[in-house]
Amino acid sequence: MFYTYILESKKYNELYIGYTNDLKKRVEEHNHGKNVSTKRYAPWNLIYYEACTNKKDAIRREKYLKTTQGRRFTKRRLKEYFYGK
Question: What angle do CA 81, 57, 26 make, to 5 degrees?
Fold first, then answer.
């Protein structure tokens, strides 16, 4: 399985979107500073993920979620999460 995921920085409320084949390990890597682009925003909360059986589908979904339209989808999909804070 391949996962497209969204993390939220606990410190800065920034979102990070990525994909992986080992979700648990990848989130741990983000939280332990092993990713240069997310290191300074750690710690992270996993707030959303989707599973795909195909790597290309997961990559395509990641690219979509990073677009303006994809970010709107995320805000609508996680409406209660974002407005319940």
Answer: 60
| pTM value surpassing 0.90 | yes
Concatenating the DSSP letter of every residue in 2-65 gives EEEEEEEETTT--EEEEEES-HHHHHHHHHTT-STTTGGG-SEEEEEEEEESSHHHHHHHHHHH
> Which tens digits make up the pLDDT trace of 25-82?
999 999 999 999 999 999 999 999 999 999 999 999 999 999 999 999 999 999 999 9
Domain of 59 in residue numbering reads as 2-83
Task: Specify the number of domains making up the chain.
Answer: 1
| Rounded distance between C-alpha atoms, residue 28 and residue 7, angstroms | 11
Q: What CATH number has the domain bearing residue 39?
A: 3.40.1440
